Amino acid sequence: MESFARVDTLPEAREPRSNSYWPVLGAVAVGCCVVGLVVNPQLFVFGILVGAVVLLEWMVSAWSERATGDAAVNRRVRNRVIQPIEIPVFGAIGIVALVFLVSRVLLAVGENASWILAIGFAMLVLLLGWLFAAAPKSTRTALAVICILGFLGVIAGGVISAAQGSRDYEKHEQEKPFLPADRNQPIPTSLPEN
Predict the structure, then answer these.
(1) Which residue segment(s) compose the domain that 41 sits in?
(2) Which residues are within 8 A (CB) of 40 and not within 5 positions of it... i.e. 6 or more apart?
(3) pLDDT computed for residue 148 by the predictor
(4) What's the number of domains the chain is made of?
């Protein structure tokens, strides 16, 4: 343990003093699984993935909060153990979830509205990225809250759209395929008599 914390001696462990939000996220994952069983199998898989992530994070947080008596050392221990896993995994899950949920919304709205929404969403992502890069540290918290609220809105819109289903598409009659003349037939040498 001393090698993870990079200290010579470890203080005594004490009970955690902060509240955990992992049970709430676990309840959201269970809710997604239940709704997904009834409505959409993709939502069920999404709930399973969120539940697995919540379980992993909850276990590591509970372990690291009791690792030592110093909260700063506990944070360092937790970060050394879980950050090499959580940053790429959470980034990938977040991107896949965002793309999937936005696609559900675009499939649920009309044909003309879908391309307008897609362009608007792309412009919003670009604008928020630019603001986050250009903003000083004081406004980054506000932008992070806006991004989280926007992601929750996308989740709600995606779940509602997945429950509603995609729009109806016109079925086109399939044309008969063009068949060229058979080149293996012999060419007639004389014209037929009338």
Answers:
(1) 2-164
(2) 162, 163
(3) 80
(4) 1
Residue 5 has pLDDT above 80, yes or no: no
Alpha carbons within 13 angstroms on the beta-carbon side of residue 154 total 22
Q: Using pLDDT thresholds of 50, 70 and 90, give the confidence band for residue 138.
A: low
Residue with more model confidence, 109 or 162 = 109
In tens, the pLDDT along 24-81 reads 889 989 998 999 898 888 889 888 988 988 898 888 888 888 777 777 888 888 888 8
Domain membership of residue 42 (yes or no) is yes
**What predicted TM-score, i.e. pTM, was given to this entire model?**
0.54
Angle at 171 between CA 170 and CA 173, to 5 degrees: 135
pLDDT at position 172 is: 66
**DSSP letters along the chain, please?**
-HHHHT-SSPPPP----S---HHHHHHHHHHHHHHHHHS-HHHHHHHHHHHHHHHHHHHHHHHHHTT-S-HHHHHHHHHHHHHHHHHHHHHHHHHHHHHHHHHHHHHHS-HHHHHHHHHHHHHHHHHHHHHHHHS-HHHHHHHHHHHHHHHHHHHHHHHHHHHH-PPP-PPPPPPPPP-PPPTTSPPPSSPPP-
Is there a domain that residue 192 lies in?
A: no
Determine the residue type at 34.
V
